Amino acid sequence: MDDPVDELIAAEAPHSARHIWILGRPRLIPAARPWAPTSFWSDDIRDLEPVRHSHGDEIVANPMDGDAGPVPDQVWMELPESLDALDDTLSALHGLAAARGATGLHIVAGGRIRRMNKSLNTVAARWFDDVHASLGRRRARVLHFSSPRAHPARGAGWPRHNQISTMGLEVELVAHGGVFHGAGLDAGTALLLDQRGTMLSRLPSRPAILDLGCGNGVIAAALALELQGAAEVQARDVSWLAVDSTRRTALANHVDVDVTQADGLDGVADESLDLIVTNPPFHRGSARDSAPTRRMLTDAARVLRPGGQLWCVYNSHLPWGEHLDAEVGPTQQVARTKAYTVTRTIRD
Ligand SMILES: C[S@@+](CC[C@H](N)C(=O)[O-])C[C@H]1O[C@@H](n2cnc3c(N)ncnc32)[C@H](O)[C@@H]1O
Description:
One of its GO terms (molecular function) is N-methyltransferase activity. By secondary structure, the chain is α/β, with parallel strands linked by helices. It folds into two domains: 4-148, Vaccinia Virus protein VP39 (Rossmann fold); 160-346, Rossmann fold. 29% of the residues lie in helices and 27% in strands. The protein has twelve helices and 15 strands. The longest helix is centred in the first third of the chain and has 17 residues, at 83-99. The protein starts with a helix and ends with a strand. S-adenosylmethionine binds at residues 180-181, 186, 189, 213-216, 218-219, 236-239, 242, 263-264, 279, 281, 292, 296. S-adenosylmethionine (SAM) binds at residues 180-181, 186, 189, 213-216, 218-219, 236-239, 242, 263-264, 279, 281, 292, 296.
């Protein structure tokens, strides 16, 4: 195994496992299977689909789904950087174990040392009586969580609800812990939504609108509220936590949004959309790789109708304006602050 985190998780896991649940680290599957029956989940559909393909549907189990099947006695997982993401996952695993009276749950959570901090242990101690760290090896470390607490410190619970206001529009956001900006409004997204008067002014009747990379669903919900049923609003994201949050946000605001978990614009019909609105991802996980975003933006040229618009907000130092101008159509800067730029691109 060439990944030090995978290697350490497999080496540190107690050898007594009866059923192992791997979260977010597909390359651990071959290490786990000779020991015990194995389940797998990844929030990102790009990691989940290949596993579904090679191991079948039976291996897939989502810890956020209260109906997830038998509760394993071991979980081998990627340690998220976000404390809220960890809290949400541990809350779900603790809840599943408690509902089935399973007290022997042992979690082995691994990550790179430079991305870890002591607060992760504090979060885990809300849910487990026994929380301790391994010795680091090859810049990786694992944390062990066991003995689920009889009376965990639940806090406000997940998913979180939050009422935000954007230029006179009230939106209730609902979000899981691992979603971009949680149940809050990102400053770049706020700048983008501030332009919605112009954005929605030149659309055909009953336009087809897509919130691309929807996160907590704030863009889809705000536009659906603004247009009050006079549009077909869709949303998509690679993350299950994001699509579930967006569905809940739409429900909380009593608007119809058609939400899909998918990679970029895969499966969207050619020339089928009038408007795409996006605060695109900057990088995948912790790898500073902008290729997926580049691909996703380029593909907008295929799915927009001629004359259709792409509205985008991004960090002002990024090259997306030039990229859109070259690949999709004439691109104009609509708003700019020191931190963020909003552009409108019209498909040629
Ligand atoms: C910067 S966040 C914006 C979230 C939300 N629209 C907002 O404004 O708060 C970018 C979102 O894109 C999603 N994403 C990343 N890569 C993607 C891809 N290849 N296809 C679809 N969504 C993707 C991420 O999961 C994340 O939710």
